[in-house]
Amino acid sequence: MLETVLKRERDYGTPARAATAMVTLTIDGYEVTVPEGTSVMRAAAEHGINIPKLCATDSLEAFGSCRLCLVQIEGRRGYPASCTTPVEAGMVVHTETPKLHDMRRNVMELYISDHPLDCLTCPANGDCELQDMAGVVGLREVRYGYKGANHLDDTKDTTNPYFTYDPAKCIVCNRCVRACEETQGTFALTIGAKGFASRVTAGQGEDFIDSECVSCGACVQACPTATLQEKSVIELGQAEHAIVTTCAYCGVGCGFKAEMKGQTVVRMTPWKDGQANRGHACVKGRFAWGYTTHKDRVLTPMIRQRITDPWQEVSWGEALQYAASEFRRIQQKYGRDAVGGITSSRCTNEETWLVQKLIRAAFNTNNVDTCARVCHSPTGYGLKQTLGESAGTQTFDSVMFSDVVIVMGANPSSGHPVFASRLKRRLRQGARLIVIDPRRIELVNSPHIKADFHLQVRPGTNTALLTALAHVIVTEQLVAEPFVAERCDSASFEQWREFVARPENSPEHTAETTGVPAELVRGAARLYATGGNGAVYYGLGVTEHSQGSTTVMAIANLAMATGNIGREGVGVNPLRGQNNVQGSCDMGSFPHELPGYRHISDPVVRSQFEQAWGVTLQPEPGLRIPNMFEAALEGSFMGLYCQGEDIVQSDPNTQHVAAALAAMECIVVQDLFLNETAKYAHVFLPGSSFLEKDGTFTNAERRISRVRKVMEPRNGKADWEITMELSQALGYPMHYDHPSQIMDEIARLTPTFSGVSYDKLERMGSLQWPCNDDAPEGTPIMHIDQFVIGKGRFMITQYVPSDERSTRKFPLLLTTGRILSQYNVGAQTRRTPNVAWHSEDVLEIHPQDAEDRGVAHGDWVGVQSRSGETVLRAVITDRVQPGVVYTTFHFPESGANVVTTDSSDWATNCPEYKVTAVQVTRVSQPSDWQRNWSRFTDIQEKLLRERERESDTALTGK
Ligand code: SF4
Ligand code: SF4
Ligand code: SF4
Ligand code: FES
After folding, report:
1. Best mutation site among 268, 280, 416 for ligand 3, i.e. most ligand atoms within 8 A of its Cβ?
2. Which ranges of the chain have pLDDT less than 50?
3. What ligand 3 atom has the least distance to the C-alpha of 246?
4. CA-based Rg of the chain, rounded to a whole angstrom?
5. Pocket residues: Cβ below 6 A from ligand 1
């Protein structure tokens, strides 16, 4: 069990070096052999000799400013700093001599003379490197007194919601500045002034909250004193124990140490050994966990017959019996397939497995789908067709071996921040960057990074652009012919080669469609094909289109044609939005596939599940989410079990979704809060947060990581237990005592998971599937010697314009995305201090389009499409190109999805969120939909409050 004793992780002082050449030296009489380039400090630490240090830490390059780590080297003059001195063969080093002791004590004396002596009341007491070093060097007195010039009265900056900056405690070690630069890549901090006056400054001398700081917390973690300190630690004190778990926000899947005091989280510290994040985190995972104890959480099961009735609090047994009897009643009245369920990419693999099992075995229908339908289903389809496996090909570490990176339809700095930091580091080392996005995302031009090409593609024309890139590669003879000949299917390649070479696919011909000048397309294609290791990272700006699957296949085509697949530094990498998108797909959440992406019509596969589950499964695929809505409106789909997913806010064409839900007779929502979907529910089953349960998440790298219970579920049950008990109530008992047993069943029935177990996860930290007899320790990089499909298959990517095109009535194209501080529908992050950065969704509009409409910055504007209208505040910016407007969808009252339409991907029905033809006009009041939403929300909140009053009365006996 990775329940760690709470102590600082071992710090070797400077980063490890990967050189193959080894160097042997002597330190304090011991012979030590380390890779070339290693610092003396690290060489000593690896041998168990800890040289005192303050400005050095092994996540950052050495800086050499504190002079505490001085050593003596035979044959050298003076006393060099061991952190900045590389080892040399035959070197003889002494780390402990009377002279060194004196010098170190003198250094510490100077530091302490300008430091408040409030150790006993300092929040870092017991977790302060300055304090530790004072002890290590044996400091007993400060000869200079404390009366001289000092910084003890400097003003504290408390503006960041999560941490404070107390300059009185700063020792100017520069660790925070370097963490912001090297680890995070934001460059928000500097050391202002010189000498005694020097102090850390955020931005241009601003408060933290007003600076470029993105609140990742890397500086706080790096700070050896309480100068930068988490407010939670100031408030709660030091933690007592720590448990390693996995972030429940984005698809990076960062490992964290939950530092605990009893049942209370004191802070979340990124896990140094986390294989996805390597000790780094973003503002969401590190700080935004307060929603788990938010007062809005509903902790008691509730039922009601109609959505106009007040909620009734009931026991778990009553709620589950009521839900089961309603599902059975509906099946009797409308037929077996009149019910279904939706699994969530926010839930664990084990929970998702159980939900799809319940639907298939207890409901005995295949009407199960997942929210991945509306984000990455085209990835599953497109990669399966071309490469043979529905998943990304690399590790995140792999980007450190890339020479050219294409980022397409993704904004990693906001959506996948920890990966963005890694990518930026590689770009600062010299890798080249091609951004394909309608919007000027942060990576296009940020501190020390400038994209070589920004192909500012018109929304909806990705396929035409990628085919034009392929045209250049083929017609300029840039194809990796030996790779293609050896690894790919020749017939499909020849057809594809002929297709892309057609004149109508040339950059010159497609420029008018895509809006991207031909010379930029040619330059980018040449760079990707010839620049060394080329990797593609893409997001929902690729998949959420009517041609999402085609575009995914176009990316795979490019990677195969240039030989950029099957080794470090290359590959096709979907950046998954939510924490367990990959896992929810792997676990058989799609209506046509059993776990492991095996078609439900396959009798052999089906019979394995039938034997294991003791039921006869239906051989026909069930309904996808949009089909469920259609069927509800037609009166043939009347009952829904929805776990951890807010379809009313997240799915397109809100009014259509709401009408479908209003038409159903029993909706069971299992969630933390009374979300938008729960307002239409008849049964509410309180869910548990990631801190309250055991399980696993699978991130964008196919990495399976453990989620560990750090506190008891406040609702009384983990989600897997709730599903199990619902199944029991339906007359299909399931028997598990712990999620590890569910994983054992997953492993038994899913060939790509057959080698996965909790024991192995405990030993290895995490595992990337496939993990089986062929790859017992998992598969970091896929398709190394051959594609999963055998020979890679090229697919024709004919561009078909979206129905969502600008017209006279709707002349602008709306595209949507997310922002760093908020997450998805915002249900979690809106209930944290993250609202300090983003408290409402706004509409970004180009100055020219704003001027044409008489819209000024901050005006309310109506955004109308053929689906509906909403009103947002306008932000005028040239981040978007003329003709394109942009918004986020984190707040329900914004109604971004009132405007999006039911246009969807031809292969998977993934909605075309990224292209909606709209008109924008200046308005002075909310839209009709917003007024109706407010009224409906007021009623639902009143019904919830009435339930709460009943409960209060019961408790107080009045
Ligand atoms: S929190 Fe992150 S972005 Fe902000 S100053 Fe610290 S390291 Fe830089
Ligand atoms: S704020 Fe902390 S990390 Fe930064 S210079 Fe001061 S003591 Fe060092
Ligand atoms: S990058 Fe993603 S997984 Fe990592 S801390 Fe941030 S939200 Fe969590
Ligand atoms: S630790 Fe080496 S100079 Fe500070």
Report:
1. 416
2. 1, 5, 953-958
3. 3
4. 29
5. 179-180, 184, 186, 188-189, 213-219
- Atom of ligand 1 minimally distant from the CA of 228: 6
- Count of Cβ atoms closer than 10 Å to residue 363 Cβ: 26
Q: Which of 112, 170, 219, 221 has most ligand 2 atoms within 8 Å of its beta carbon, as the pocket-test mutant?
A: 170
Is the sign of the CA dihedral 109, 112, 113, 117 positive or negative? negative
Of all protein residues, the one whose alpha carbon is nearest to atom 3 of ligand 2 is 223
Helix segments in 505-646, DSSP class H: 507-514, 518-530, 540-543, 548-561, 581-586, 603-613, 625-634
Q: From CA 574, how far away is CA 543, in angstroms rounded?
A: 9
Q: Which residue has a Cα nearest atom 4 of ligand 2?
A: 176
Kindly state the helix (H) or strand (E) to which residue 643 belongs, with its residue range.
strand 639-643
Q: What is the pLDDT of residue 956?
A: 41
Instruction: Name the DSSP class of 515.
Output: -
Among 314, 329, 310, which residue's Cα sits nearest to residue 666? Answer: 329
DSSP class of residue 290?
G
Of all ligands present, the nearest one to the C-alpha of 189 is 1
Cα–Cα distance list, 123 to 127, 202, 233, 238, 344 (Å):
8, 22, 6, 7, 39
Q: Phi, psi at residue 782, to the nearest 5°? A: -95, 165
d(CA 220, CA 213): 12
CA–CA distance, 361 with 880 (Å, rounded to integer): 48
Whether residue 751 has a cis bond before it, omega within 30° of 0: no
Q: Which residues line ligand 4 (CB under 6 A)?
A: 53-56, 64-69, 81, 83
Q: What pLDDT, on a 0 to 100 scale, did the predictor assign at position 803?
A: 86
What integer pLDDT is reported at residue 404 of this predicted model? 98
- Residue 234 in 3-state DSSP? helix
d(CA 858, CA 43): 57
Each residue of 512-568: pLDDT tens digit? 999 999 999 999 999 999 999 999 999 989 988 889 999 999 999 999 999 999 999
- Give the model's pLDDT for residue 150: 67
Distance 187 CA to ligand 2 centre (A): 15
Instruction: Tell me if 200 CB under 6 Å of ligand 2.
Output: yes
What is the number of the ligand 4 atom nearest to the C-alpha of 66?
4
